[in-house]
Design goal:
Helix 11 packs parallel to helix 13. The longest helix has 37 residues. The termini are far apart. With 319 residues, the protein is mostly helical. It has 16 helices and no strands. Helices cover 73% and strands 0% of the residues.
Length: 319
Amino acid sequence: MNSIRKCLGFVLMTAIIGSGCSITKIMLNKQIDGTQKAGIATKRETDPDIAKRALPYALKQYEGLMVLAPWNAKLRLMAAQGFVSYAYGFIVPELWGHEFDETDEVYYTKRKAKDYLSRAHMYARDYLNRVDSKLAAALDEPNVLAEMLPKVKSRKKLEALYWVAYTWAQRIGFDTDDVEWIGGLQQVDMIMSRVEAAWPDYDAGGAILVLATSACKKGAGFAGGDALKEAEARFQRAMKLNPGYLMVRYMYARWYCTAVGDAKCYFDNLKAVLNGGTREPDGKQLTNVLAQDWARYWIKQGEEFFEPDQIPDDIDEDE
């Protein structure tokens, strides 16, 4: 009888402990879900200073939750999105006009940008690995990846692939002399082409924009006119998908108009960004405000791309 009681007691204790672990896991998962949904508040923020101060706390919260909930894949996606957004939106612009300054401040800012962009890519790869380990294993094998991508139809897998490629593209773009990263350009183009074909409006046409920007850089370099025609077509497609998304028009001016040497295109589109509304599409309000801030900066840098007589006389008056 005592043996039976001891056995029942052990079973009951095990059930209680197991139940406690399950409850903790459920509570953490719910907290993470709530944190992800609350993130829309930052995306809708129209004061970049508030967003810039808030994002670092959110990023450390994500990493802290990873310690408590190592099983949760969604946290990796949130961290990838957060780190790349913070680096691209707030750290990299601090270097504009100072890229070649040999100061401690520039050195540390560059180091921070590299670290955050690299960390974003690491988390994106980790997320993909949890969604589809075979796809993740193929990332560094272009031939294998090329065979697998046409079969990818799941939106969860497409989303994971998109953030791998997006963070990869941003890290490459930040330092094109870094041979460790530049080799990933082929995979970035392959992945973004698949996302463009299967889910073109994801992240407000983000895959289209990455491919368009890449084509501009190729066109300005070795690829020539065909790449630039491809870039223009993609930018026009992105504008039709999201007419109110100012970042598309900003990128069109910054990359396409400069690549083809069209000053009117450059200044007209930057002015359109400055005069545009920031409310649409929903969830891109902060990005729209950043696009206006960046347009305000680059419209004054026309001498980097054009002859003095190509710069409109009213630029200073407008700004």
